[in-house]
Each structure stands twice: as C-alpha cells, then as structure tokens.
Design a protein that fits this description.
There is one protein chain. This protein has about 350 residues and is of the alpha+beta class. The strands form two sheets. Strands 3, 4, 5, 6, 7 and 8 form a six-stranded antiparallel β-sheet that branches. It has a two-stranded parallel ribbon with strand order 1-2. It has two domains: about 100 residues, 3-Layer(aba) Sandwich (Rossmann fold), CATH 3.40.50.10730; about 230 residues, 3-Layer(aba) Sandwich (Urocanase fold), CATH 3.40.1770.10. The chain has twelve helices and eight strands.
Amino acid sequence: MGKVCIEEDIYVSVGSDQTSLHNPWSGGYYPVGFSFEESNKMMVEDPERFKKVVQQALVRHVEAINKHASRGTYFFDYGNAFLLEASRAGADIMAEDGVNFRYPSYVQDILGPMCFDYGFGPFRWVCTSGDPEDLRKTDYLALEVMTQLKESASHNIVQQLEDNIKWIREADQNRLVVGSQARILYADALGRIRIAEAFNKAIRDGRLKGPVVLGRDHHDVSGTDSPYRETSNIYDGSRFTADMAIHNVIGDSFRGATWVSIHNGGGVGWGEVINGGFGLVLDGSQEADNRLKQMLFFDVNNGIARRAWARNKEALEAIEKELQRTPQLKVTTPNLVDQSLLDKIFS
C-alpha cells in the first residue's frame, strides 16, 4: 500500500503500524509476495526461510515508510515491536545516535505526555453480580465523580476528563460489554480513588447487588516496564530496567490488593517487558475503603514519581500537585540543571 501511494503521488498525513511483531515467526507478520496458504506452509516446513523472507519484507516495509516520512508523513510505532524487529532485520530504522529509533512510539509523542505523566491510565472494574443494571449504576457513579472532578481540575487535565466523561456517558448505549459486566476508563489516582469509594458505598447501601473487582490494564502509568512502549518516554536510561512493575506488585500487595501478578510479554514480546497487575475486591466494608485509598494512591503515584525523576515536565507538575495535596507523601524530585551548563562542561 505504501509503495502504491508513493507511485501514485498520494500524500499520507499520519502513518502507524500495529502488526503483531512481538510474534514475528508464528503468524504475527506475513511476508510480501506469498499467499496466506504459502506462508503458513513455509512457517511450518521451512521456518528459517520464513524468518528470512519476513525480515526482507520488513526492510521493504521500512523503505516505504522512510519515503513517506521524507515527504512529511508523521509516522509513529504503536509498540508491538515493529521498530525493534525491523532494526534486527537490518532496516534503515535507527536514529543517528545508533541507540534510539528514527520514529517514536506513540507513548513518547502522545500517550506519555498526555496521560501517563499526569497519572491517567486504564482503570477497570467488574460487577461480580453479572447484572447489567449494576454496570449501568457504576457507569453513572463514575460519570458523577468525573464531572465533579472536572469543576476544580487544572487546565492540564480538563481535556482528559472531558474525553472520559463523554466515553462513560455513552458506554452503555454503544453496547461495549462482551462477557463479564465490566468497564474501563482513563482516570488518575484521585479519580480512581473517588470512583472506587462511590462503588464501595453503593455496595454497602445495597444499591449494587454484589461486590465490584477493581483492576487496570498493564498499559498504564506504572504497572509496566517496557522500553519500547510503556516506558519509552523515560529518557534518563532507566527505561531499560524492570524495577517499576516489581515495586508496584510488592507495594500493592501490602497496601491492600486482593491479589497481584507479575508476568512477561504482553504486546511487545517475551523478554522485552515486565508487567505487574492487581485485583482489589470491594465488598462494602470499611476495610475495603481503607485498602482502596492506600493501594490505588500508591499504584499510580509510584509511576508518576518515576517519570518525574526522569525529568518529564508533565510528571513533575503532577507529582508537585500531589505533594501539595498530600503532605504525608514523600518523593525525591530532581534538581533541574540548565542544559547549556552541561553542554559547556562536557563539550
């Protein structure tokens, strides 16, 4: 398609890739020039050749992207290991420094500065009653909380709140449920805590028929260490460590999580990411109130603190606001140095 657009002189404004290149040799990416049936047969009978033709296709793929980018196309990587596997195939994908890629992941340019650095990430819940009416009630409670929060929110996060208010208001009519009566929206620590408190009170008052289980995606503020996606906008070198997810799992476990998990893989490939997850059951009790406040607060702010230490402007703003709001919170923040002084010293 990219080759055709070049030949037909079609300008492409935005381009991306979400091929499953975290699984490149078992059907995540099919090579050009071969049918689906031919590729599947080669995958089984001649895996070495299959790998070779996939890598040749990746080189061709990148050549087309580079041509479009030279004409002004904004290309970003979704994070399913396209840039990584293209580099391993020998494609012209590296930046001049030889360490970074020529193109950003969408976390670097979009999701990181807009959401993760401010503490916004995919907050989940499941109504264990299995009753759609319970889910509708939780939608309303979440909508009520986010609408209230918007009234006093800083201008930096108003858009995030407005987007999620629209999302949760229309969720039921768009019939998004498949299987469990579950919902997801993007919220920061304060939003997650307030929503969870509203759920727990509704369970206690009998307005909800059963407990609610809280969780989140691994693709979040602090639950995952993934240098080519979730932590790709951490530029102090620590994105290549796997400590944040471990901190979260351990910290969440003794702050009240009902269960925690630590696992490898998840969208970018084995060996390229560590994910930490949790589940927290709300049963209407005072104990659940105490647990949700402690655990959700830590689960989000651990990641904001890490991103702030890496000198991300938005994370520095977010952690400073939390330090003012929560006097008992202690976070070491960086002392910023004028870049011109560093340039002078190391020139």
